Description:
Blueprint: E1 8-14, E2 16-17, E3 20-28, E4 31-35, E5 38-40, H1 47-59, E6 61-77, E7 84-99, E8 109-116, H2 117-121, H3 131-140, H4 154-157
Amino acid sequence: MPHRWKPNVTVAALIERDGRFLLVEEETTDGLKLNNPAGHLDPGESPIQACAREVLEETAHDFEPTALIGVYLNRFTKTRTGDDLTYMRFAFAGTLGTHHDWRTLDTGIVRTLWLTADEIRACPERHRSPLLLRCLEDYLAGQRFPLTLVHTDISVTEPSAQ
């Protein structure tokens, strides 16, 4: 049987406060880029748990997802290696919690920053992914779905329960 194609599963958080959105500036092979707090789904966790973990690792803030904004597919080719990659992103809105200023930000994260929607729209060349703007526009349009749409079977988080 030929190799089975599998997209990389990622999560992202859209966090708004006073009309500004929390982003991270991160080092990439293409230079400094802006992104939502985001990252890969790890083994043994649900997308909701992954989103809370990634926000904490990248911004040093607690985060509680409250709604699914959408599920997105994105494909691109890495500039250095030519690798053809597809990502499936689960984007969540939620509540920002305590800031833990003693925490070190995740490797590659240079800083966090708060930008308005217009400031984000004005710099698409700095976006890590076109999904940054697409998720933002869906959020601003009021797109929200209940978290119950993202079901994680207990066999994922508790393998002994199989």
